[in-house]
Amino acid sequence: NSPPRAHAGGHRVLVLPSNSITLDGSRSTDDQGVVSYLWVRDGQSPAAGDVIGRSDHSAALQLTNLVEGVYTFRLQVVDGQGALDTDTATVEVRPDPRKSALVELILQVGVGRLIEQQKDTLVRRLAALLNVLDSDVKVQKIQAHSDLSTVIVFYVQSGPPFKVLKAADVVRNLHRRLSKEKADFLLFKVLRIDTAGCLLRCSGHGHCDPITKRCVCSQLWMENLIQRYLQDGESNCEWSVFYVAALALTVLGLTGGMPWLCLYCRRRKRIKIRKKTKYTILDSVDKQESMELRPKRGIKHRSTEHNSSLMVSESEFDSDQDTIFSEERMERGNPKVSVNGSLRHGAPFSYCSKD
């Protein structure tokens, strides 16, 4: 009794979107026949991918929902005597060559409620929006996105000569043209239209998240909000955090300093106005005073008249003093001669006779 010889099928290649394959272990041999088969997935293989039924205990292993990567399965066969043998098989799943052209359309409808007739109508309306033939819209798969939503993955070609359109261009055109149509133009409410794969380059400063389809920026970089929300809406990592921080501080400083600057200018203006008004009043007063002090033609100035009157009174006073002094001298020189009366300015005198 010779031991059995296992044959797992060798190396297989699978190209997405095809994600199902069958590994045939029926070519395993034994002189008395193989009585059991067991397929075991290697621990370094992708966890995604399902085994159909209990095919992992049969000669043919049936797999589905495989993803990009390399799977390794080990086949173990046992004969009637308990002898065993093992062999390995690998499945290389390659990416979809049209990955950059795939578009995801998410509709608000349960996957079980979407019928074939509605799918055909949907394809026709997509073709009308994109100005292509119905046959140019290729639906790749329809699957549940949630309990109440369905995702339809498709790509668009044009020709002849036939070429596949870029997913980013298709998404941009659909966004622009659907904005001009009614909400139910595609039969159901559109929840999202986006590229199936994450194709963003993120300005070379980050990577694209395959779930959210948005850029995850590296340290010290951030999203250009103007492009994101005011232009084409594409996620990016164009802005440097340093430049944004410097700009924010500058704007904050200008915003905070403007009220103080306005207040300072207003105070300076008030001071200038006050000084100008004050000087104007002084100038006018000086002019008035100069006009008052300036004698008019043919009219003597009041101060001049006053001075002249003072001069006259002073001269008169001098003459009176001379008269008084002369009379006193005469009286002293001739004491016998006396006249009753009084001198000017209240100087009393008496008359005495010689008896």
Automatic annotation (TrEMBL):
TM region positions: 241-265
GO biological process: neuron migration
Keyword field contains Cell membrane: no
Keyword Membrane: yes
GO cellular component: cytoplasmic vesicle; plasma membrane
Cross-referenced InterPro entries: Ig-like_fold, KIAA0319-like, KIAA0319-like_C, PKD/Chitinase_dom, PKD_dom_sf
Assigned keywords, A-Z: Glycoprotein, Membrane, Transmembrane, Transmembrane helix
Top-level taxon in the UniProt lineage: Eukaryota
Region named Disordered: 293-355
Pfam families tied to this protein: K319L-like_PKD, KIAA0319
Gene3D superfamilies: Immunoglobulins
Domain PKD/Chitinase positions: 5-96
Primary localisation category: membrane
Localization, UniProt: Membrane
Protein name listed in UniProt: PKD/Chitinase domain-containing protein
Annotated organism of origin: Mustela putorius furo
